[in-house]
Amino acid sequence: VFLVSITGQVEEAFFPDYDDLYCRLFWVYGQDWVVTAGQEEGVSQVSRKSLDSSGRLVWNFPLSITLKSTSPHGWPQLVVAVYGPDLLGNDVVRGYGAIHAPLAPGRNKARIAMFVPES
To answer: Exposed, middle or buried, 44 (CB in 10 Å: 0-12/13-18/19+)?
Structure first.
């Protein structure tokens, strides 16, 4: 049996055509994995674009989870979906993506490619 402990944060996003966005995140993993501590899912606050030229949406949403397994098969992945209002004020998905948990210990920084649905 081995343990994988992950702490960190979802810092920011760049969606040039949208504002007032929030993210939902959750972990997916194989059958042999069990969460021993932390949260499997979460929802961030709504963020507005920064006023500078970058137009970033900043969340700084914390992550903390510990999982155990007897096999690396089904290694954990973080799934992020970004939502925002449409013209009628309904929440609609603005983008989604996933990334595997780091394989090596230490500090890691990653970017998640977001798939943006067309309407």
So the answer is: buried
Token pair belonging to 30? 């194989």
pTM, rounded to two decimals: 0.91
Scan for tokens 């040039």, then name that residue.
Answer: 16
Mean pLDDT score of the chain = 94
Are 3 and 67 in contact by the 8 Å Cβ rule? The answer is yes
What is d(CA 6, CA 67) in angstroms, rounded to the nearest whole number? 9
Per the CB < 8 A criterion, the answer to whether 110 and 77 are in contact is no
Please give the DSSP secondary-structure letter assigned to residue 74: T
